[in-house]
Amino acid sequence: MLNSVTPTAGGLLISEPFMMDPNFKRSVILLTEYADIGVMGFILNHQSDYLLGDVLPDVSYSEIPVFTGGPVAANTLHFIHRAPEKIEGGIELTDGIYWGGDFEQVKELVSSYQLNETEIKFFMGYSGWTPEQLSGEIQENSWLVTDKFNSEMLFNSNDQQMWKQVIISMGQRFAHIANFPENPQLN
């Protein structure tokens, strides 16, 4: 096993460098739930082709990108944020990062340009596992797990570089993984 950190809500899953599943290739996933009934999270670094105005035409500020949260329930919209003083009802996951909250309030704040992509991320769909399924995948070294990361990176990183930055932030033991090629045959 690559690391021994136990996954928890508010922690990150980082895909191993050669994962072939296109849903999770070079993914960084923020876990929002880790319970006996299941595990849920959102892929933070797979931006979709959609902007918020494409999925919510009644919201006038449409420039906020929408991310592919995962392959489950791809027709649902979710969000995380770091604006608890603006959005009521969110659940704090870790270090000032919140999941959900008053959606009508969010739409009003976005429409009036009082929220931007450095404060909120939207996702279509989510990623989900049974606890046993995820444990098995971690045992097979499909995922790295960390609960120590700079939350600033989740909102301000270049999405193409986030996977690499998170791995490097895990320390010297893992930093070399960040330079592995996507296709090992090209090495």
From TrEMBL:
<protein>
    <submittedName>
        <fullName>YqgE/AlgH family protein</fullName>
    </submittedName>
</protein>
<comment type="similarity">
    <text>Belongs to the UPF0301 (AlgH) family.</text>
</comment>
<dbReference type="Pfam" id="PF02622">
    <property type="entry name" value="DUF179"/>
</dbReference>
<dbReference type="InterPro" id="IPR003774">
    <property type="entry name" value="AlgH-like"/>
</dbReference>
